[in-house]
Automatic annotation (TrEMBL):
Pfam family, one: GTP_EFTU
PROSITE patterns cross-referenced by the UniProt entry: G_TR_2
InterPro entries registered for this protein in UniProt: P-loop_NTPase, T_Tr_GTP-bd_dom, TRAFAC_GTPase_members
Metal-binding found in the keyword field: no
Name this polypeptide is given: Translation elongation factor 1-alpha
Domain Tr-type G: 1-170
Domain of life: Eukaryota
GO molecular function, one term: GTP binding
Lineage: Eukaryota, Metazoa, Ecdysozoa, Arthropoda, Hexapoda
Length: 219
């Protein structure tokens, strides 16, 4: 089981979604994915019994929120999903109940609920994902307050656009800790890692330590 990457563009950002597995057996994969994120999108199932299972003592909603905060992901968005399967469907009281409960839990962890957008969605039907749903007229939108300014909107994609991009240390020297090296036939040796500081672009001459090998970046 690996983490899935999905890229798309919003009005403001290039977004890469890292979909980490929720199952307890794959917690290390989830940590790999989460540790590199700028913002966590916690998806909570609104269906009867589903939310209760997730927020229970050993539930995944709790576990993932705690892991995200512990790994240094300080921005959070909560998507209350499967609003089509609440009793009755698209129930305002169910959304408010979940919002209250999750707010109280994430506050204990260390998140400030005032900075967290709660969006009622249905991924299956697309409600409030990209466009405002006509089936939840009671939802007047989400609003967040933080020292960098306020933001508000109706849909999940707008909540993604309200993420505060972190300052990347691009003015420093290039440092790229290697995670792995692949040898790919017809292409050559491909080192894999994350650029921690500086800028990596084709044509740059880089030095690998401690072997002291110098090479040029091809692509």
């Amino acid at each position: 089981i690996d983490i899935a990457l999905w890229k798309f563009e919003t009005a403001k950002f290039y977004v890469t979604i890292i979909d980490a597995p929720g199952h307890r057996d794959f917690i290390k994969n989830m940590i790999t994915g989460t540790s590199q994120a700028d913002c966590a999108v916690l998806i909570v199932a609104a269906g009867t019994g589903e939310f209760e299972a997730g927020i229970s003592k050993n539930g995944q909603t709790r576990e993932h929120a705690l892991l995200a905060f512990t790994l240094g992901v300080k921005q959070l968005i909560v998507g209350v999903n499967k609003m089509d399967s609440t009793e009755p469907p698209f129930s305002e009281s169910r959304f408010e109940e979940i919002k209250k409960e999750v707010s109280s839990y994430i506050k204990k962890i260390g998140y400030n609920p005032a900075t967290v957008a709660f969006v009622p969605i249905s991924g299956w039907h697309g409600d409030n994902m990209l466009e405002v749903s006509t089936r939840m007229p009671w939802f007047k939108g989400w609003a967040v307050e933080r020292k960098e300014g306020k933001a508000d909107g109706k849909c999940l994609i707008e909540a993604l656009d309200a993420i505060l991009p972190p300052a990347r240390p691009t003015d420093k020297a290039l440092r790229l800790p290697l995670q792995d090296v692949y040898k790919i036939g017809g292409i050559g040796t491909v080192p894999v890692g994350r650029v921690e500081t500086g800028v990596l672009k084709p044509g740059t001459v880089v030095v690998f330590a401690p072997a002291n090998i110098t090479t040029e970046v091809k692509s």
